[in-house]
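Troubleshooting entry. The earlier prediction with INI gave an output that would not parse, so I re-checked the input for stray whitespace and re-submitted. Clean input:
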Amino acid sequence: MDLVIDGELNAEGMRFGIVVAKFNDFVTLKLLDGAKSALLENGVDPSDITVAMVPGSFEIPVVADSLASSGNYDAIICLGAVIKGETDHYEYVSKGASEGIARVALDNQLPVMFGVLTTHNVEQALDRCGGRKGNEGESSAISAIKTINVLRQINNNS
Ligand code: INI
């Protein structure tokens, strides 16, 4: 029979680092609220959540890497909002953030969530931080818990 490994949504005893970009904080602070609520609802102790603020999404990877390599966290949740402007800056910031975050995850063998919105306008961002399309912070927190539990099952079975 197939062995199917699936992560359950139980976060008791888990420790989380959250990195939040202050740029576009009218969006990112709502992502933070969503992420924290989801963690607390699923059993995380408030004292097991560390929040690190960074100036913009481009600075997320270096701080996420520092938290990840400390060994103090089961997952890192990265939250930002890159909103397209008139120049190419958006492309560089979103590429730096996404590629950097992916690298931090693999370099540290730790779930590092990409809760960075990359949208064409403010409306799309507002829809995704507690509006019509949910809250990306909340989804990232839930994904983090499930991924930790998948990795735990794999590592316990090997
Ligand atoms: N940072 C963001 O998080 N979102 C943006 O939309 C954004 N734009 O559009 O410029 C942004 N820029 C700042 C960037 O993340 C760095 O903080 C800055 O370039 C200094 O390294």
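This one parsed fine. The CA atoms of residues 28 and 80 lie 6 Å apart.
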